[in-house]
Amino acid sequence: MDVLHQLMMGFQVAATPINLLWALIGAFVGTIVGVLPGIGPLGSMAILLSFTLKMDATTAMIFFAGIYYGAMYGGSTTSILLNIPGEAASVVTCIDGYKMAQKGRAGAALTISAVGSFVAGTLSIIGLMFAASILADAALKFGPPEFFAIGSVGLLFLVRLSGGSFIKNVIMLLLGLALATIGTDHLYGTPRFTFDISDLGQGVEFLPVAMGLFGIAEVMLTAVEKEELGEMIRVRMRDLLPTLVEWKRSIAPIFRGSFLGFFIGLLPGPSPVISTFVSYMIEKKVSKHPEEFGEGAIEGVAGPESANNAAVGGAYVPLLALGVPFTPAMAVVVGALMLHGITPGPMMMTEKPQLFWGVIASMYIGNVMLLVLNLPLVQLFALITKVPKPILLPLITLMCVVGVYSVNSSYVDLYVLALFGILGFILRDLGYSPAPLVLALVIGPMMESAMRESLMINQGAIAPMIFRPIAGTIYLAAALALIVPPVVRAIRGKKKPPATV
Length: 501
Known about the structure:
Blueprint: H1 2-14, H2 17-35, H3 40-48, H4 57-81, H5 91-102, H6 106-139, H7 144-161, H8 166-180, E1 183-184, E2 191-192, H9 206-224, H10 244-265, H11 271-286, H12 299-322, H13 328-339, H14 348-351, H15 353-374, H16 378-383, H17 389-408, H18 411-429, H19 435-457, H20 463-467, H21 469-495
Antiparallel strand pairs: 1-2
Helix pairs in contact: 1-15, 2-4, 2-15, 3-4, 3-9, 3-13, 4-5, 4-6, 4-12, 4-13, 4-15, 5-6, 5-12, 6-10, 6-12, 6-15, 7-19, 7-21, 8-19, 9-17, 9-18, 10-11, 10-12, 11-12, 13-19, 17-18
């Protein structure tokens, strides 16, 4: 009953006119961001980060939650109508969604996608509500060794699950940790790696780094890419209603994708993307018509689209309960909280209950807003992809520059923005993902503080820091998760009979 009472209080916070307005703006902006190829929820949140400074912290979190969910919704629109994924989590939707559109079933695919996203979002919010409460209570028993264990294991999983080259991911992780050491030593008050630049005394600001890597770099990448927009498939309102057979075939994939996405969202890494691929593979295996996949199977839209929305709710659990972001987008949310002087973690639920429960309640409201927005305005959102680059890209660049400078009025921040914009462009061209760098920059200070405090408590001994019950369990679980799957695959490979000629 206490949870329901707190949720009712959250609805009172979320239902204020200003919070409802920003939830709607966030949902609308997120849908546009999801439709536009390349920018994605991470880039848009980084670009708009500085504009939340004038908002209340709760309103800012509600705004970002709307953007994140909206981007997951919007990405399916261009995937289905144009065969162009608006963001990475919608790549799988292109496979069957566009095939359905070519067969005249674009409306059905869009409706199933929107309803699946709504159901998955609602279920994941319920999971977030209870899981975060339980985990936050347990986290009150955590000390510095436990938080260091969570941070180090989270970064390790991120490196393994982010895709691409493991070595390149490790390099980016180490670069992020190195950047996190710049500034004033919090124990001794001495400057570190500041090169006598006073503005670096507080460290390298997260905002210009994030805006450079995901805003300016994205603008540069988009500018050099050739536009290859196909002919958009038109959808009339009467075409949006799926048949009874399509509804029946979609129900189980929606619920499977919802549960799968939520639990994958609890893991470090690009969980919305991973969950869509896993959901698609599962649906293909359990389907009675696997031959239809790739040719317009409704399950290939329902499952992945549900999974990527559910993963968003799962990603909020470690952030709100432990204060540790497991995805780059959650790192931006942490940056927004810190700009408002709030440190996320297990105490936030008791110290800032209005923020915690207000954000959760706003997600319920935002889900309804997105369902109402997306279906009637689907054609309008799809037309946004036709905005010319010479208009769109300078506007994004201007927002980045003004946003960064408005926070501290520092020219150093502008230099950092430009440096990481160029660096992000070069790194992506060379196949390096900037996500590990951003997460390491956010988690690095917390890990350093936890490690140094642990060593001080144990008088420099490392063993007590590792073998404490909770910390040791975290390390053991991580080791098993990393070692067991390759061993099982190797054993299965040896048991397979040799192929006959």
